[in-house]
Design brief:
By secondary structure, this protein is of the alpha/beta class. It has twelve helices and twelve strands. The model has no long low-confidence stretch (mean pLDDT 87).
Length: 305
């Protein structure tokens, strides 16, 4: 668990973060969102003690991080950033092995961990001897995530890690991070200004504005029960209905009636189902069952029930 208790960060007379309190459960994926200047990255950096709070406290699994040696804290928290920060003169394997070697792991264990992470991030083992400049931005970002996970940290902190990537690469890495979260059970804090990214990845959202926490809760809560007009507008305003469809899945609404056509998967979001209905010019879609063939359907009216 990560707990922020009345955390404040002041620069002179200005509060970059002002009296922020929330708790992220172990194994949760929490997105910290908000407009530019809202205090998102400052909050993240205080959790890793890259900067120190001016007031309040931060605890990880009940331990006040102010009482921990900085090196010990950072070895417990993996950190991935937008600029990646790979060492250009080190090859991929050495970049990933940075923290395990600082922890004096046996070299055999280090190399085993490198291979595990290359596999987890779906990177070719042959890449281990190459250097960062030989890879695309998306591949470099995967290597950065592998390095952040290398010492098996309790917490993974990600500060707008996909912000500089093109939309296609960004979407691919979103899927990968979601898969990694499911497979590892890590607690992840993810800073982003992209609310669609937060809705796709997170099970809890902390929305900041002018350094203050405006609302904290599950995505569905912020969409259906916004605390004020700012939350409603930030979450999508007039497009809230479509964003709600993106949180629900076809399997929740499938009916037993069969209809012709190529079946869609039950894990398809209702937003994707609506898109398919428009593209296929139909009001009903078949839904795939366990064996791969259609065993039910979903209709346009089912999207709004």
């Amino acid at each position: 668990m990560i707990e922020l208790d009345h955390v404040t960060k002041s620069y002179g007379a200005r509060d970059s973060v002002n009296d922020v309190s929330f708790a992220v459960e172990k194994g949760a994926f929490c997105a910290i969102v908000g407009p530019s200047g809202s205090g998102k990255s400052t909050t993240m950096r205080m959790i890793n003690r890259l900067i120190e709070p001016s007031g309040g406290s931060i605890r990880i699994n009940g331990e006040d991080i102010a009482r921990l040696p900085v090196e010990a804290l950072r070895r417990r928290t993996g950190y991935a950033i937008q600029s990646v920060g790979l060492f250009p003169h080190w090859n991929v394997a050495d970049n990933i092995a940075t923290v395990p070697r600082l922890l004096k792991w046996p070299e055999e264990r280090v190399q085993q961990r490198v291979e595990e992470l290359l596999s987890l991030l779906q990177l070719d083992s042959a890449m281990r001897t190459k250097f960062p400049h030989q890879f695309s931005g998306g591949q470099q970002q995967r290597i950065g995530v592998a390095r952040a996970l290398a010492a098996d940290p309790e917490v993974l902190l990600m500060d707008e890690p996909f912000g500089a990537l093109d939309p296609i690469t960004r979407e691919t890495l979103r899927v990968e991070i979601s898969r990694i979260h499911r497979s590892t059970g890590k607690t992840i804090l993810f800073v982003t200004h992209d609310i669609d990214e937060a809705l796709q990845l997170a099970d809890t959202i902390a929305l900041l504005r002018d350094g203050k926490l405006v609302q904290f809760g599950a995505p569905i809560e912020l969409l259906t029960q916004p605390a004020n007009d700012f939350v409603r507008d930030f979450m999508g305003g007039s497009a809230l209905g479509l964003k709600l469809l993106a949180l629900r899945h076809v399997g929740e609404r499938v009916k037993p009636e069969l209809v012709p056509g190529e079946p869609i998967a039950p894990e398809t979001t209702l937003a994707e189902a609506l898109s398919q209905m428009v593209l296929r010019r139909t009001s009903h879609l078949p839904v795939r069952g366990v064996g791969g063939s259609a065993n039910g359907s979903i209709g346009l009216s089912d999207l709004v029930t």
